[in-house]
Amino acid sequence: MNPIISVSGLTKVYANGHMALRDIHLDIHSGEILALLGPNGAGKTTLISIICGIVNPTQGSVTVNGYDIVRDYRITRSMIGLVPQELTLGSFDTVWNTACFSRGLFGKEPDRAYLQQVLEDLSLWDKRNSAIRTLSGGMKRRVLIAKALSHQPSILFLDEPTAGVDVELRKDMWRLVKGLQESGVTIILTTHYIEEAEEIADRVGVINNSELLVIDDKQALKHKLGKRQMTIELEQPITSIPNSLSGWALELSAAGRQLVYTYDSYSEHTGISGLLNAVNEAGLLLKDVSTSQSSLEDIFISLVRAE
Q: Which domains are delineated in the chain?
């Protein structure tokens, strides 16, 4: 199946010499939710801006549903809805007029029923006749989403959509995102809330220092890059690990009261049974045993620190 967005060799160098993106290769599949993670200044917004036709690339190419973003700009842009980080709205326009005007910009015929449904889904219908300047920050964020959806795009970009918004809006937004995916919309989002990416995304990409470090299915990332640990809590503290346990690369923590064993849970032989037997043979009394799995946040932090 051909990707709905294909990025090949994409590089962006600004006039001041800053390299915002370096040789990015990325395929985005139709109907998926892709989360892009990365610290501030990593290049996430630049990547989105290039695909949306807002920023020109220095090198490389991008196609949207087979159309080149430079040569076929009008076609590709009509397929895309963008929710930017900044609250870019006319202060004196009403919510309804804002949505209608945005739809008209893309040459779409008026469709009151569709726009009403969008505003209802975003809890904006009761505010349809209110001026933008009278709305709270969270409500303005909802209006940005309504604008992005007004022309019924097949691809939706959400650039830090929940930054600075309340919990209620965040939950409403993710419900809407899931509903859009079910209707066939492809969604690409950037976020600092890694737990949200873990909850909602199908695939996760990590960008740092202008480069795409990794992109894969969430579970595959955890498999390849994550780790599982078993913590053995001892009845009595020890000052050092017995020589008979040296083969397990254990770590001693919690003032000598815990032995920490890192292993691959997908391996055919984890070594857990042998380790527990060896601990017993070493004369150490066990108080408790627990295990933990690396989260997406752990993987993200380790990748960024490694860079």
A: 3-223 (3.40.50.300), 227-295 (3.30.70.100)
